[in-house]
Specification:
Number of strands: 10
Order of helices and strands: HEEHEEEEEEEE
Low-confidence stretches: 20-30
Largest sheet: 8 strands, antiparallel
Distance between the termini: 70 Å
Strand order of the largest sheet: 3-4-5-6-7-8-9-10
Strand content: 35-45%
Number of domains: 1
Helix content: 10-25%
Structural class: alpha+beta
Amino acid sequence: MRAFKRFVLAIAVIGAFAGSYNFNVSTTNFEFGKANAMQMEYRYVQNVLNRIAGNWYDNNGNLAIEVHDRYINGCEVVAGYDFAGGNPGGGKFAIREAGGIRYMWIDWNTATYDGLTPYLKIDHGAALHR
């Protein structure tokens, strides 16, 4: 019984110290859905930008978005957050516009095998095509 009490006390002490430690040391706070977001290393951001590079059109054939180098519609992509998946995938991008930083969610699929059609979706909107 004495060993059990020591075990419970040890768990309580460890829990008290662990509960006071901030485990979110690698997150960045910003107001996008009022949640902490995991900032991606820029090499992963560049990898996605390379994957989705090109001109993307709406269903009427109008140019909707241009992705070239480190730019989306001529605005520099400064960061990426919360990337999920690979291809298809999705994530938040921070772009520097004239009025400041803007955040947008982009879903992508650039696969063309088995008859798949590549697409982009900006902020969960309609699919854009190449």
